[in-house]
Amino acid sequence: RRNGIIKKAREISILCEAQVSVVIFSSSGKMSEYCSPSTTLPKVLERYQTNSGEKLWDAKHESLSVEIERVKKENDNMQIELRHLKGEDLNSLYPKELIPIEEALQIGLTSVREKQMEIWKMHKKNEKLLEEENKQLTYMLHHQQLAMDGSVQGLELGYKEREFAPQMTMAFRVQPIQPNLHESK
């Protein structure tokens, strides 16, 4: 039935060239709506409100609508101010209007330079820490190399100090297993 009602609303909209809007809520709470292509639901509701004299929106909705308009205007003003800070659309401004923009840019520039200096100091500090760490590691590596060189030299000295020849006389004697090796023919 819901689809039949929406179909009839479309037909009335086309055949009568009327602005039609239908909102249907089922028993489960599901909403279905149809609105003529030439209009929107808020426009139809506003037109109904003006023609019937009944207020569809209560005070709470009115204050929300006013708040939405205020926020939109504020957003537009901020967009314009942002364009001015970017250096766009400045030709339409008077010199007195340029002074606050210049001051805001000066404050921003000062803030950016302070942040750059802070980062530069942090990098310098890190650079010094890395240099100190590098010196310590180089020092430790040097001592480890000296220790290793010393132990290698100690081993070499140990071999040189020992005299194996007098302590150990090695004589080799070949004993023939096969008698024909010693025989002279």
Topology, pairings included?
Layout: H1 2-15, E1 21-25, E2 31-35, H2 41-52, H3 59-85, H4 95-161, H5 164-167
Antiparallel strand pairs: 1-2
Structure in words:
By secondary structure, this protein is mostly helical. It has five helices and two strands, in the order H-E-E-H-H-H-H. A two-stranded antiparallel ribbon has the order 1-2. The longest helix is centred in the C-terminal third of the chain and has 67 residues, at 95-161. The termini are far apart. The model has no long low-confidence stretch (mean pLDDT 82).
Order of helices and strands: HEEHHHH
Spatial strand arrangement across the major sheet: 1-2
> Do you know the CATH topology of the largest domain?
SRF-like
- The portion of residues forming beta strands comes to 5-15%
- Kindly state the percentage of residues in helix: 55-70%
CATH architecture assignment of the largest domain: 3-Layer(aba) Sandwich
Distance between the termini: 133 Å
Q: What is the CATH superfamily of the largest domain?
A: Transcription factor, MADS-box
Whole-number count of domains: 3
Question: Strand pairing plus helix content: what structural class?
Answer: mainly alpha
Mean pLDDT across all residues, rounded?
82
CATH class of the largest domain: Alpha Beta
Please give the radius of gyration in angstroms.
49 Å
The number of distinct β-strands equals 2
Pfam families: K-box, SRF-TF
Coiled coil: 61-88
Keywords: Coiled coil, DNA-binding, Nucleus, Transcription, Transcription regulation
Domain MADS-box: 1-38
